[in-house]
């Protein structure tokens, strides 16, 4: 269960970052950039890098490959997986883990689940509160920090989870 949720989360992150799209495609097509290293290092937004290849697969699938975002996606999948696994262990085996602090790992998961929306949320907020320009720019600044803050919170949740385990060999 934890693996499935973590993988779905990673795919959702990659989709909301714009690297997976479901658009009409008439024929299979591969597009590669002429200078992959330069493109791979170019950031289009905080923690979002340009893609180096695009695959259009009929009838409705487009996949853009961005090496740094794939690494980031894999890191997030792993961290979400460990947090969910530690939570499941603490619920299934209360003697192994102190139940009093399990809420900390759930709190760490909440902002982490929204990192997939960090690229799109500023756009949605600007649309919803277009009149309040100052508020919109503040929210864009906050959401640009969503991914690193989520990674830190997930790592903290894992650290706390392993600290609470009482394993006897």
Overall description:
The structure is a single chain. With 169 residues, this protein is an alpha+beta fold. It folds into two domains: 18-68, no CATH class; 70-164, no CATH class. The protein is 58% helix and 12% strand. It contains seven helices and six strands, in the order αββαββββααααα. It has helices at residues 2-16, 36-41, 67-92, 102-113, 121-128, 133-144, 146-164; strands spanning 20-21, 29-32, 43-45, 48-49, 53-57, 61-65. A four-stranded antiparallel β-sheet has the order 1-6-5-2. The protein has a two-stranded antiparallel ribbon with strand order 3-4. Strand 5 and strand 6 form a beta hairpin. Helix 3 runs parallel beside helix 7 and helix 4 (102-113) packs antiparallel against helix 7 (146-164). The longest helix is centred in the middle third of the chain and has 26 residues, at 67-92. The relative contact order is 0.15.
Key terms for this structure?
58% helix, 2 domains, 12% strand, four-stranded antiparallel beta sheet, 7 helices, single chain, alpha+beta
SSE layout and pairing:
Blueprint: H1 2-16, E1 20-21, E2 29-32, H2 36-41, E3 43-45, E4 48-49, E5 53-57, E6 61-65, H3 67-92, H4 102-113, H5 121-128, H6 133-144, H7 146-164
What would a concise description of this structure say?
The protein is an alpha+beta fold. The chain contains seven helices and six strands, in the order αββαββββααααα. It has two domains: 18-68, no CATH class; 70-164, no CATH class.
**Largest sheet, spatial ordering of strands:** 1-6-5-2
Q: What's the main sheet like?
A: 4 strands, antiparallel
Helix percentage range: 55-70%
| Rg on CA atoms, Å | 19 Å
Which structural class should the secondary elements be placed in? alpha+beta
Average pLDDT reading: 76
- How much strand? 5-15%
**N-end to C-end Cα span:** 26 Å
Structure annotation, total helices: 7
Shape assignment: elongated
Q: Count the domains.
A: 2
Low-confidence stretches: 114-132
Count of distinct strands: 6
SSE series: HEEHEEEEHHHHH
